[in-house]
Structure prediction request, 108 residues.
Amino acid sequence: MKTMIKPLAALGAVLALGAASTGMAQERSGEQIYNNYCSTCHQIGAAGAPKLDAADEWQSRVDARGREGLYENSINGFKGMPPKGTCGDCSEAEMKVAVDYMLDEALK
Prediction:
């Protein structure tokens, strides 16, 4: 039985690597990223982060930098926020989806 486990584990690793390299890995939603990473600071306004429910704070940032500027800030970091916030394994596309989620929620 042990001789069967190793080949199956190796096959699983190869399939996982193949899925990741071909882009088959499923991206997380903006809400998932926000809840798991962004909310740490954006829920309480830590280090000057705009709170999710503070429409005026978000609108002033959109007016000053535009949505593209906010994408860049989320990817590269801004003031007290490190690059990609606390989601070091997020893709750039996922960071944009997270920003879109926060803007959509804040500016309802």
In short: The CA atoms of residues 44 and 87 lie 18 Å apart. Helices lie at 2-21, 30-42, 55-76, 92-106. The chain has four helices and no strands.
